[in-house]
Amino acid sequence: MFISVNDKPLDARQPRGEGMDTAKDGDYRVLMTLLRNAMPVVFGYDFVHPGGGCQPMDVKVSGPRALIDCAGVVPGAEMAAADATIGETAGFIVEAKLPWKYFRGYRPKPGARLLFNLAVNFSNGAGTANIGKAYWNGPSHMCTDLGIESQIHPEGWGWLELTGK
After folding, report:
1. Total structural domains in the chain?
2. Is the pTM value of this prediction over 0.90?
């Protein structure tokens, strides 16, 4: 899941650093996965965190470098998955709960529009290699270079509108 809680999400997006991503303060990526024989994992990437004081991540394999100011397990997050069949198609359902406080004080309000995207990685049967990726908004592609895969480009995401209380 990709989300930006930035008040001016598309203003002045300039490539930053060697990674050439366009991350700004308020841009997040949240990875949710089920590891074999383990509990679900909800891991967050806070790309631009001006305050510091958290665990950074510097990703480079063979291509460009991706810089992430804060990376780690999302405190208070929960996730569950179950097999499901819709019509004749077997698949799964994932339900997740992410606390808003993880997004550094963002207070959701009805009618707010946030840059947002979802992606699903498909792997081989053993779960040892990614073989495809599908995005909710934007072209689907798969990249085998971790530095490139770790970059984000919110200018290509869609919008999420918050409703309700």
Report:
1. 1
2. no
